[in-house]
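Long-time lurker, first post. I've been practising inverse folding by hand and with some scripts of my own, and I keep getting stuck on stretches where the structure tokens seem ambiguous. Below is the full token string for one chain I'm working on. Before anyone asks, I'm not after the true native sequence, just a reasonable design that respects the backbone. If someone could post their per-position residues I'd love to compare against what I wrote down in my notebook.
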């Protein structure tokens, strides 16, 4: 019998996961998606061939969707996760694995809002999933066994690299790979601004920065690629690049990145506490 997979909420990240999963060979006939607006439901059904329900039209859409499901992906915002879990708790199959893609929502919080013993997996995907180059970190809950974790891997394998980590590292992963794409975009912004300082037009400056960062990223995806070795290969002794790197080191760019990552991880921990207080 075909395994039923359900997406509760399907924004841009959820759709990226869905598209990667379908591209990897999962049948759209096995997938049910719930969203709020009927227009969005129609869009997803037309684009991907899945069954899509709109909760604004069907108040029991979420309950109907999870009935008989083997895998349920929670794709709503963190503030709505616990209410959604309580809504669907009694309709879930006892062995269905519930996968959360919400940042900062702990396994304990998810498990506390579901029935005792419900298998839960917490995930931290990042936005490059949209182009099949994502990183996803998974942490299994107290009732999730190797089969549930394998099912979670199958959901994300078509969208990028999937890693298993202990939950206590989730906030750190969020600070590095979850927020990390924004750091790369920020670097590209700064490079474009520097180009403009040299009198290069904004249009050409953007192309220079965008294609350089994108090209360097592709080089990092080559088998065995190491950022330190790649940097050294471009940095000739007493050359121009060496001068730029030396300037970055004097300003402690690595320390600045570490400080930013710690701030991101601290904010994730604070959000977890805020959700616990609700």
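-- Answer (accepted) --
I ran through it position by position. Result:
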């Amino acid at each position: 019998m075909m395994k039923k997979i359900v997406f509760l909420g399907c924004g841009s990240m959820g759709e990226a996961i869905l598209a990667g999963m379908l591209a990897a060979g999962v049948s759209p006939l096995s997938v049910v998606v719930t969203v709020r607006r009927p227009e969005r439901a129609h869009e997803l059904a037309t684009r991907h061939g899945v069954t899509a329900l709109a909760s604004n039209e069907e108040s029991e859409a979420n309950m109907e969707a999870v009935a008989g499901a083997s895998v349920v992906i929670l794709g709503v915002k963190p503030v709505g996760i616990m209410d959604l879990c309580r809504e669907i708790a009694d309709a879930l199959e006892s062995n269905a694995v519930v996968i959360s893609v919400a940042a900062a929502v702990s396994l304990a919080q998810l498990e506390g809002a579901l029935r005792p013993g419900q298998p839960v997996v917490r995930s931290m995907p990042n936005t490059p999933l949209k182009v099949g180059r994502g990183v996803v970190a998974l942490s299994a809950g107290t009732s999730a066994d190797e089969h549930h974790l394998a099912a979670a891997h199958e959901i994300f394998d078509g969208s990028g690299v999937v890693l298993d980590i202990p939950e206590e590292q989730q906030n750190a992963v969020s600070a590095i790979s979850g927020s990390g794409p924004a750091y790369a975009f920020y670097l590209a912004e700064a490079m474009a601004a520097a180009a403009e300082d040299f009198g290069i037009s904004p249009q050409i400056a953007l192309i220079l920065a965008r294609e350089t960062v994108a090209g360097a990223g592709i080089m990092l995806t080559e088998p065995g690629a190491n950022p330190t070795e790649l940097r050294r290969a471009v940095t000739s002794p007493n050359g121009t690049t060496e001068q730029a790197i030396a300037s970055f080191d004097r300003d402690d760019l690595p320390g600045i990145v570490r400080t930013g990552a710690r701030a991101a991880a601290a904010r994730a921990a604070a959000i977890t506490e805020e959700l616990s207080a609700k």
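A couple of notes from the structure itself: DSSP finds twelve helices and eight strands in the chain. Strands lie at 5-8, 31-35, 51-54, 71-74, 97-100, 120-125, 134-140, 160-164. Happy to go over any region you disagree with.
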